[in-house]
Every structure is written in C-alpha cells, then in structure tokens.
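Let's practice the habit of predicting before peeking. Look at the sequence and jot down your guess about where helices and strands might fall. Then scroll down.
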Amino acid sequence: MKNAHNITDRFTGSVIFTAEIQVADDAPMALRLGAATAVAIAAKADLREAYLREAYLRGADLRRADLRNADLSHADLSHADLSGANLRNADLSHADLRCADLRDADLSHADLRCADLSHADLSGADLRDADMRGADMRGAKS
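Done guessing? Here is the structure:
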C-alpha cells in the first residue's frame, strides 16, 4: 500500500520532504524512514539537518549525499555507499556502519561515539574533530 511519510528537520520538527512510499501499513518506523530517505535521495532532496534516527538504510546508495547536521544515530547504514557524502556535524552515534563505503566522506565534527565502523572503508575521509570514543574500528580501512 502506498503511504506518505514525512522527513523532518531534527531541530525545528518542520517537514523538509514528503515521500510516497510502498510499504505495509504495519511496517516498522525504521523501514518506513529508510524507504522515505531513499526516495528523497533519488529526488536530490536537501536532507541537511534531517531527523533520520534509527533509519534502516542498509546497502543504501547515499553517494555524495548532503547530510550535514543530520541525526543518523542508531541508524543501520551497514554496507551503505556514503562515498563523498557530507556528514559534517552529523550525529552517527551508535550507528551501524559495518562494511560501509565512506571513502572521501566529510565526517569532520561528526559524533561517531559507539558507532560500529568495523570493516568500513574510510580512505580519504575527513575525520577532523570527530568524536570517536567507543567506536569499533576493527578491520576498518583508512
């Protein structure tokens, strides 16, 4: 069934994008948010400061996405392609970034506390002033 799902600004709560998504009425919020984010990215929507907490984005194509200041805490971004993405000041605390492609991503000032970055590719990524306390970096490539 087709449903509308809003992506909101993490600071103001205002709607920044509305996506028509094909999901079951009882689908978990994480899945609905992930599907809406995929539609927004495809539409080249401005997702700066988006509230994407707990979004299911496993394997998502987020190349060169502008996610500055976005809340992606607790999101599943495992196997996602975030190469060249702007994640400056993003909240990625407790995010699952296992095997994610973060080549040349801007993660400066990002909150990566307790994030799982195991086996992620961080080649060329800007990690200046990122908070990486408790992050799992086992097997990560830099």
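How did you do? The first strand starts at residue 2 and ends at 8.
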